[in-house]
Structure prediction request, 568 residues.
Amino acid sequence: MTPRVHVFPVRVYFEDTDAGGIVYHSVYLNYAERARTEMVRGLGISQRALLERGGGTAFAVRGATMDFLRPARLDDLLRVETGIVAVGGASVELDQSIRREDDGVELVRIGVRLGYITLSGKPARIPAAIRDLFGNWIRERR
Amino acid sequence: MTPRVHVFPVRVYFEDTDAGGIVYHSVYLNYAERARTEMVRGLGISQRALLERGGGTAFAVRGATMDFLRPARLDDLLRVETGIVAVGGASVELDQSIRREDDGVELVRIGVRLGYITLSGKPARIPAAIRDLFGNWIRERR
Amino acid sequence: MTPRVHVFPVRVYFEDTDAGGIVYHSVYLNYAERARTEMVRGLGISQRALLERGGGTAFAVRGATMDFLRPARLDDLLRVETGIVAVGGASVELDQSIRREDDGVELVRIGVRLGYITLSGKPARIPAAIRDLFGNWIRERR
Amino acid sequence: MTPRVHVFPVRVYFEDTDAGGIVYHSVYLNYAERARTEMVRGLGISQRALLERGGGTAFAVRGATMDFLRPARLDDLLRVETGIVAVGGASVELDQSIRREDDGVELVRIGVRLGYITLSGKPARIPAAIRDLFGNWIRERR
Prediction:
């Protein structure tokens, strides 16, 4: 049976930190997007192919909520845990949690609402094959 | 009387865009932070002085909610409108709205909860002088 | 007569700094590109129009040299000085200097070689009108 | 015998690309710095420990040359090859080459000159143990 949480490792580099000595807050959204990309790639879906195919479609972030619980620091090894909460005709809702790898402490909690759109920005139906793949990952909302 | 909304202009450059042809979603958090920095600077508060003063304190983002309504594109001139919703002993809550300058259309709505912390990450009381300055800006929650 | 050096102001924000307390080195390339964009915009050239017009063309960075003389820090107000060194059929060479605004001290010196390309990456001839505009700005090489 | 070239894999994500559909040029400097960090970590040196130890020291980029040969695109898997060219008392010179993993084509060539400095920006002697480790990696200049 498919696991319900996708796990993706991220290392903190200088580029990610700020003069306060910690990871700059918007960078966690980048980490989260890397993790979603690898999750989608793991399902056999190429975002670049979606983008370059006739007309072009993409998952776009429609909404996000972020709770910054503790800071990550230079050299930290993190893991991003991603679960799917709900899949609709043109949208997907995910829960993501960024933790320190060594002790599992949760640093940032992110909720993301993705819309599926054409490159001109219009909502598009998520292909059934992709929706089914996501459906296998749905877990309970926290 | 003090205006209730701080306005800050931002231009979209190549560095801000992604292969979808629009501004990458996490970049709006950077725009929002630039606007808050200028708002605070306008009140006569230097974040660098807070950071470098004995021990060091800073405003840290504790939580954020983001609604992405429409995309910004390369070369767009935007304006970030910032209002303060509430000021507590160790936290500030703000509403920020990013609009296209030419037609005023709202692109992104951001709610931000800031905590005041020491560099070691412990909550600190916002100095009364700063709290009073913020208090003058409080507006109704949307 | 046209001035020979284009001047563009940049403010350093938290997003630009790293855990060493200074501006992260690659960020200066972003500052330099913002300045070139505004210089080009000042000549009446829209990069977005070039990009979206049939086929699409853009200036792409082909090469760069960077000398980091002194660090910029949080809250610093900088200015980017840009001069054109040479204009060819499909390339432009520029000198850029990033200085602190208050005392004029040079922090970073950047040499940039731009190529004019189609979106598929092939070299393209710079339109004569644009080449002439750039030609007016040519100055002695340092 | 120690290998002469350090190899580090990098995946291209949306955050790295721009509206031209390719990786934004300054991002390659970030990739290069990640690779140097892992090379140094592989030698048993923690940059965070150097930074946090009494006074604090760090390797800072003093100069760089970049040749952009071909663009990387969304989803590309790249590898950064790093070799050390020379080690001095307070500086290190490296050659870095960014290639596509699947066909080995070179995309970007970077030369970097690092200085070893205190957090106040003064040059510092590289500890002999670190210098020796780097010395084992020296290779011929291209």
